[in-house]
Amino acid sequence: MTSRDQPGILAGYRVLDCSIAMAGPFAAQRLGDLGADVVKIEPVTGEWQRHAAAGGAGGNRINVSFLSLNRNKRSLAVDLKDPAGKEVLRRLVAEADVFLQNYRPGVADRLGVDYASLAALNPSLVYVSISGYGEDGPYAGRPGQDLLLQAMSGAMLSGGRDGEAPRAAGQYLVDAVTASTAFEGVLAALLHRERTGEGQLVTVNMLDAITTLQMQELSVHTVGGLPQTRSAEPHAHVYIRSPYGAFRTADVHIVLAFPPLKRLGEIIGEDSFLSMEDEEHGWTHRDEIFARTASRLLTRPARHWLDAFASAGIWAGPVYGYADLVDDPQIRHNGTFVTYDHPTEGRVTVPGFPYRFSATPPRIDRGAPLTGEHTRDILAEAGLGEEEIEALFASGTVAETS
């Protein structure tokens, strides 16, 4: 049997994914990529993300946002406000390994799917609750939206010019790091359960996730006592000496990361750098060094500077757009993107997996499902008889799309 034929590392584990939007679904998708049976439990009208296409990128029957966050899942469309729907969920929970939700505060309690209620049904359950700011506290009721958390985290003031508007990351950064944090939490809790048989509650919140991501920067502030001071020049990071950031050349931008000042001065022809000390003047003359570097780099094209810096062992590189990234030879070599055939969306190419395993590699066994595409199969697996299933369809408690 080849490694490709091996079941995934998490084969045999069932995950009930009751989350919406990005952080929760992305975490659950990672579990599915490793072989877990992920059941996406969504309303009969479909999860919110099915109706909110990022960038306006629609699809044939599934928009790109939903497609990108819900592969390797099966869909059960069920009304959890209906008592019969709640009973369906309870039967699934009794045999599940992981339950993941990111409901607004109080919703899990109202639906009867809070940790205490589900742990009473299945004491070995790993229950993951994702929130914006925490399970309780003064901000618990606030909306946990990515941009709001980026702004609150302090990260938006760690780069750019003093006096200019804060600049957000070009990614859903807080959602992504929260998803990774939840994924790590599930794996750790499952390992604990393997050792002890105990399930437990795992809570993850977006505010803590983005704050702890800045471990080094915030420690410089809290331990080192250094203020978070932006420069007059568009320096890329307040806690890194100059020059550090993106610079225009004669044709396109490149990035340059804290080179030795004397060596940099020799290469770009800036004599004032030759008498400077990296760890002294790199801080005290940060704006001057940045501005003079920027002026010198404008005189020649990017390829000239990148070759010269590479020969000198100076850290520099190109500034890519997505089209450049997808076509990069290292990206192609790594197999970073994967291409597969989706039943309704055709051949799609998307980012693949951030990890490698020699014996049990992750893989795509199914693309993102249609709303309730697997409702009938999942109900049968939960022990419901054919008459019970048909009655649930007839009452509108569950739904399917073929």
Can you walk me through this structure?
This protein has 402 residues and is an alpha/beta fold. 38% of the residues lie in helices and 15% in strands. The chain is built from 17 helices and 12 strands. The chain has helices spanning 23-33, 64-69, 83-93, 107-111, 115-121, 146-152, 173-196, 206-213, 215-222, 261-268, 278-284, 286-297, 302-312, 322-326, 329-334, 375-381, 386-395; strands spanning 14-17, 37-42, 73-78, 98-101, 126-131, 200-205, 244-248, 253-257, 316-318, 337-342, 346-351, 398-399. The strands form 3 sheets. Strands 6-5-4-1-2-3-12 form a 7-stranded mixed beta sheet, with helices on both faces. A 3-stranded antiparallel beta sheet has the order 7-8-9, covered by helices on one side. A two-stranded antiparallel sheet has the order 10-11. Helix 1 crosses helix 7 (173-196), helix 7 (173-196) crosses helix 8 (206-213) and helix 10 (261-268) crosses helix 13 (302-312). The protein is elongated, with a radius of gyration of 25 Å.
